[in-house]
Amino acid sequence: MIHKQKPEDLNRINKGTLMESLGIEYLEAKEGFVKARMPVDHRTLQPMGILHGGASIALAETVGGLGSALLVDPDRYEIRGASLAANHLGAATGGYVFAEARILHQGKMTHVWDIEIKTEDGRKISLSRLTVMIIPKQKKGE
């Protein structure tokens, strides 16, 4: 059940959030796949002048979390990141990095995503696996 949303509509929901602070922009979202980019600049660098690993992790959880949010009925379910494991394979010093999330498992209570983060020239800098919990919303009065 993917909710048809254009990237510009999805980007509007980032106002006032960590995603806006880090400059994360959604580029594509379809069933089981989300792509976004993030600048490598003063907001995302660590003191040694390379992309901070925590910024990569925030980007990974962002794309996987959005992917799960688009697969469930938002009136009935909430999504929460449960576990994220990341391997940093390289460094980026400028430009943009691009994250692509692909669903591996779409269960009733959990989703599992693989996320690759690459530089503009296609070099892999991070691989992550995200597990998302699907939580039924409580009805008012319960």
Structure description:
With 142 residues, the protein is of the alpha+beta class. It has one domain: Roll (Thiol Ester Dehydrase, Chain A). Helices cover 20% and strands 42% of the residues. The chain is built from 3 helices and 6 strands, in the order ααββαββββ. It has a 6-stranded antiparallel sheet. A hairpin with a 3-residue loop joins β4 and β5. The chain is globular and about 50 Å long. The model has no long low-confidence stretch (mean pLDDT 94).
Task: Give a brief description.
With 142 residues, the chain is an alpha+beta fold. The chain has three helices and six strands; from the N terminus they run ααββαββββ. The mean pLDDT is 94.
Query: CATH class, please?
Result: Alpha Beta
Which structural class should the secondary elements be placed in?
alpha+beta
Q: How can the largest sheet be summarized? A: 6 strands, antiparallel
CATH homologous superfamily, by name?
A: Hotdog Thioesterase
Cα end-to-end separation: 26 Å
> What is the helix fraction of residues, given as a range?
10-25%
| Proportion of residues in extended strands | 35-45%
Number of strands: 6
CA radius of gyration is 15 Å
Shape: globular
Tally of helical runs: 3
Low-confidence stretches: none
- Give helix and strand order, one letter per element, not per position: HHEEHEEEE
- If strands are numbered along the chain, what order do they take across the biggest sheet? 1-2-4-5-6-3
Mean pLDDT across the residues is 94
Oligomer: single chain
Say what the CATH topology is. Answer: Thiol Ester Dehydrase, Chain A
